[in-house]
Amino acid sequence: MTVHQNFIAGNWSQTDAVVENINPSDTRDIVGHYASADRAAVESAIEAAHTAFPAWARVSPEVRADILDRVGTEILARRDELGALLSREEGKILSEGVAEAARAGRVFKFFAGEALRLNGERITSVRPGVEVEVLREPEGVIGIITPWNFPLAIPAWKIAPALAYGNTVVFKPAELVPGSGWALAEILSRAGLPEGVFNLVIGPGSKVGQAMVESPKVRGISFTGSVPTGRRIGVACFEMGKKVQLELGGKNPLIVLADADLEVAANAIINGAFFSTGQRCTASSRIIVESGIHDRLIERLVDGLARLRVGHALKPDSHIGPVVNAAQLEQDLSYIKLGREEGGRLVFGGERLQREEPGHYLSPALFTGTDNSMRINREEIFGPVASVIRVESYEEAVAVANDTEFGLSSGICTTSLKFASDFKHRSAAGMVMVNLPTAGVDYHVPFGGRKGSSYGPREQGAYAREFYSVVKTAYTQP
């Protein structure tokens, strides 16, 4: 049996504990066996990163840029292979897996350029003869903890800026999908990084993540995952004076006004709510529809959903893959049951499906007749489940859209420039889409939300420097 090992201090380490990586499209298929780090291994990785930091922080930005560019080039060259691995272990269909791999490659190439663009300021002092410079410097060791739903893209958009700005990294991928994280680490291991600059530790959050959060040598934690875990990490980091960046979840609204193009709206809803099996924090889970268009839109949605095939992620005729594992499937089914008990009308799907291969298959579920007080409209389900809320006006739609503890992404479908412009300003979300799915963002612009969805500086684009670097003010009297 081949065991994919952790990468610590420039070497592939040995461990006795092993995790099986199971294909959710076919639970008979073992994707691979991956080492599970214990606390001692994590502490070794942190020590290696801590030791490597001073020299790496002083390396020419051109060296960092060249390394990141090599990583991006290899990922793009291997996008089909990496995308197939991603789809096999996570369950999103192959075209989505390949697209995610390509995005990861482009993220590394973007930050290769950013490594050369980090700048400061020279400011005239209020005191004659004194010079003032505002500089940006790396923070130190950064702990990176990523989720299972985007096992290549999210690690890429955290690791690449961390390295670009001169930090060292200890990376913990989601234990449920270690294959993509390991493949990314293997590419990084050959890219020319000095020993200890990048480290991979696979294992449960209760051991690996906890050790990273508790270590005084880790200066910042970037975490994407569940709200309860993120809040615990945030409190612990505050108590230790660590920098922290949290991306936690969403209950994203998509408003459809009576003047909307029905085809545009239906496509945006089906894509945003159900593609990637609804397992996106930016998924459209609350569909807020004006009465005048409500019934016709539901007809289109039901017709569109009936044409989708749920199946094996690697089969070319599949539109939606399986749910990631049995526990997530049970959670989705429990919310569907709850929605019916709360009075929602299940107009499509919501059933466990049997396919040729044993897997975690669920038909996309659409509820109507719901209101914003129901738990299915308050709590993040994280599956292919969406509910429709009928409203009587634009003003009511905006009020319902903003009535949530989350604030990650939002959208509106309308042909009115007036309403589109107004909603972009009034939406209490970090990202706003007009006539587009709420899910699906570019890699070179800021990503993040408000309220309970996000905490700390934005991810992605040039704004990533706010988390991965620290400002220093220097005064000089020549």
SSE layout and pairings?
Elements: E1 3-4, E2 7-8, E3 11-12, E4 18-22, E5 30-35, H1 39-57, H2 61-77, H3 79-90, H4 94-114, E6 121-124, E7 131-138, E8 141-145, H5 153-164, E9 168-172, H6 178-189, E10 198-200, H7 205-214, E11 218-224, H8 227-240, E12 243-247, E13 252-256, H9 262-274, E14 284-290, H10 291-306, H11 326-341, E15 345-348, E16 352-353, E17 361-362, E18 365-370, H12 375-378, E19 385-391, H13 394-402, E20 409-413, H14 417-426, E21 431-434, E22 454-455, H15 465-468, E23 469-476
Parallel strand pairs: 1-5, 8-9, 8-11, 9-10, 11-12, 13-14, 13-20, 14-19, 18-19, 20-21
Antiparallel strand pairs: 2-3, 4-5, 6-7, 7-23, 12-22, 15-18, 16-17
Helix pairs in contact: 1-7, 2-4, 3-4, 3-6, 4-5, 9-10
Feature tags:
2 domains, 23 strands, 6-stranded mixed β-sheet, Aldehyde Dehydrogenase, Chain A, domain 2, 7-stranded mixed β-sheet, alpha/beta, single chain, Aldehyde Dehydrogenase, Chain A, domain 1, 478 residues
How is this structure best summarized?
This protein has helices spanning 39-57, 61-77, 79-90, 94-114, 153-164, 178-189, 205-214, 227-240, 262-274, 291-306, 326-341, 375-378, 394-402, 417-426, 465-468, and strands at 3-4, 7-8, 11-12, 18-22, 30-35, 121-124, 131-138, 141-145, 168-172, 198-200, 218-224, 243-247, 252-256, 284-290, 345-348, 352-353, 361-362, 365-370, 385-391, 409-413, 431-434, 454-455, 469-476. It has 478 residues and is of the alpha/beta class.
Describe the structure.
By secondary structure, this protein is an alpha/beta fold. It has two domains: 3-248 and 444-476, Aldehyde Dehydrogenase, Chain A, domain 1, CATH 3.40.605.10; 252-434, Aldehyde Dehydrogenase, Chain A, domain 2, CATH 3.40.309. The chain is 40% helix and 22% strand. It is built from 15 helices and 23 strands. The chain has helices spanning 39-57, 61-77, 79-90, 94-114, 153-164, 178-189, 205-214, 227-240, 262-274, 291-306, 326-341, 375-378, 394-402, 417-426, 465-468, and strands at 3-4, 7-8, 11-12, 18-22, 30-35, 121-124, 131-138, 141-145, 168-172, 198-200, 218-224, 243-247, 252-256, 284-290, 345-348, 352-353, 361-362, 365-370, 385-391, 409-413, 431-434, 454-455, 469-476. A seven-stranded mixed beta sheet has the order 15-18-19-14-13-20-21, sandwiched between helices. A six-stranded mixed beta sheet has the order 10-9-8-11-12-22, sandwiched between helices. Helix 5 (153-164) links the parallel strand 8 (141-145) and strand 9. Helix 9 (262-274) packs across helix 10. The chain is globular, with a radius of gyration of 23 Å. The model has no long low-confidence stretch (mean pLDDT 97).
